Amino acid sequence: xxxxxxxxxxxxxxxxxxxxxxxxxxxxxxxxxxxxxxxxxxxxxxxxxxxxxxxxxxxxxxxxxxxxxxxxxxxxxxxxxxxxxxxxxxxxxxxxxxxxxxxxxxxxxxxxxxxxxxxxxxxxxxxxxxxxxxxxxxxxxxxxxxxxxxxxxxxxxxxxxxxxxxxxxxxxxxxxxxxxxxxxxxxxxxxxxxxxxxxxxxxxxxxxxxxxxxxxxxxxxxxxxxxxxxxxxxxxxxxxxxxxxxxxxxxxxxxxxxxxxxxxxxxxxxxxxxxxxxxxxxxxxxxxx
Length: 289
Prior knowledge:
12 helices; 40% helix
């Protein structure tokens, strides 16, 4: 078997297939075996598990997932990597590779087709440029996901676990914490990859919640409100919501709702906790009826 954690062998197979990493796909291949094992341990992969891997690259982590899981479905957007994956994963029969964009892929259908509609575990080395869209897509309520374990830019990992008032705190923080319990497992230096990225990375484990930590009568509306609150961070909450193109509240209506929630009328969105947004969301829905 090709040892893809060996930099020499990784470079050899890339050269054999005439493959050069492309910035548009954010391709950086992890070559540190201890980090791979730590990530898979954090995902708690066992022979009972079905794994969806996003962005398998040349199959470095996929090999280990196949050794640990019942089945692995890997979704890779770059068609030029499919011949490499066919070679590096040739000895494993418990996998299938889908050449597709994960943002255009029906995750529920994957579960229905390959896992009898049961819950799946997601493992991914996410390209930095699509991290937030992919995470938000995975968090959709209809997706049958048990947990998500991802390698992301360290800055994004900090945003996922951030609390109110910090500069990292925002819409991503609130979405991740509403749907999951996030934990940073480890940080990863650039030299752990080929080619090395310009920033540190981190492994984050997101365990899906059975119930949200707060109650909202309309979560979709609450997140539209959160999006508006952080779209213009320097504005007061009242101005940000009133100026939103996606919401239709007058500033007076917003101020009245803020007052009834007991918040300062000059407060900014970054000061509100998840339960505060749930309260304001329900208040605004009441005011608009």
